[in-house]
Design brief:
Length: 189
């Protein structure tokens, strides 16, 4: 019960903290430039081309894609009518995760998982990247897949998507290597 009260107090304070941070940020930092894109809306055919460039041995039925990156299996499920896609990487059984492990993945979702997230479904812990399908750009897809793979590879250690980290250390360049290699493979598409 104490844990529930602490969570409730945090949920009440979080919007106020976010508003204060947002106000502070806009007063001290310029708005980031808006990137213009020349990419056409993502289609299932285009998604398939990108997946094949990343893994020539990938498989598809036209709506679902299976590929492997760095020996990590990835399943991409699309719903064209709802304009959504979901890339999922299995990590481990969730049924025997400790409270500390669950807390750690939730902390990572807040600060180091970035565009990918840890999620629990059907008794399993997953690394997932979820995005609207049509506005999804090639580099966003490639980066999101790399981040989901990094979540699986860093589970139990750094718990990071690998694209960014707060603070110094030796791990950032190592984690970024996978995403850079994948972006390189996708350059010709």
């Amino acid at each position: 019960m104490k844990r529930v009260k602490q969570l409730a107090a945090t949920l009440i304070l979080l919007p106020a903290l976010a508003m204060a941070q947002s106000t502070e940020d806009t007063q001290t930092q310029p708005a980031p430039p808006q990137a213009e894109t020349s990419e056409a809306p993502m289609t299932l055919q285009r998604l398939g081309e990108i997946v094949t460039a990343l893994d020539p041995d990938s498989k598809t039925n036209g709506f679902q894609f299976q590929l492997t990156i760095e020996d990590v299996p990835i399943l991409i499920i699309t719903d064209f009518r709802a304009d959504r896609m979901r890339a999922m990487v299995p990590i481990r059984a969730a049924t025997d995760m400790t409270d500390e492990e669950l807390m750690r993945v939730m902390q990572a979702n807040f600060d180091t998982a970035l565009d990918a997230r840890y999620a629990v479904a059907q008794g399993r812990l997953w690394g997932v990247f979820i995005h609207p399908l049509s506005p999804l750009e090639k580099d966003q897809l490639i980066s999101g897949l790399g981040q989901a793979v990094n979540l699986a590879k860093t589970y139990g250690g750094l718990y990071t998507g690998g694209a960014m980290s707060f603070g110094g250390g030796d791990s950032v360049p190592l984690q970024r290597q996978l995403i850079d290699r994948l972006l390189k493979r996708g350059e010709e598409i």
